[in-house]
Amino acid sequence: MARAARCTARAPGAVHVAGLLLLVTGVLVWRPGRGPGWPALASLAILLLGFVQSATGGSGAVALHVPLGMAIMGLSVWLAVWAFTPSRSARSVSS
């Protein structure tokens, strides 16, 4: 049980660091990369949702904590699929 508690205590920090790295990547795609701006906005939403999810988990509001976690995962997967879609790469090379 103590091991699970330690992992649960470290998880919010990992989510926040990952969200911040995602935001930096989104901004780099948008500004110097001249890509679309919406990935940066989606990354910001993921980062902010991570903070809200962390707060709801710490307060014990599981009814909100779990759906927020699912929304974060869904948004992250959607963003990753968009980033690695071959048709996206072909469009950016041909532009």
How would you explain this protein's 3D organization?
The protein is an all-alpha fold and 95 residues long. It has helices at residues 2-30, 38-59, 62-83, 86-94. The longest helix is centred in the N-terminal third of the chain and has 29 residues, at 2-30.
Short description:
Helix content is 86%, strand content 0%. It is mainly alpha-helical.
Q: Low-confidence runs (pLDDT<50, min 5 residues)?
A: none
Relative helix content: over 70%
Calculate the mean pLDDT score and round it: 85
Major sheet details:
none
Total helical segments = 4
Dominant shape: elongated
How far the N terminus sits from the C terminus, by CA atoms, comes to 54 Å
**Class computed from helices, strands and strand pairing:** mainly alpha
The radius of gyration is 16 Å
In percent terms, what proportion of residues is strand?
under 5%
Strand/helix succession: HHHH
Tally the beta strands: 0
Question: Could you list some keywords that capture this structure?
Answer:
95 residues, 86% helix
Q: Any chance you could write out the topology, listing elements then pairs?
A:
Layout: H1 2-30, H2 38-59, H3 62-83, H4 86-94
Helix pairs in contact: 1-2, 2-3
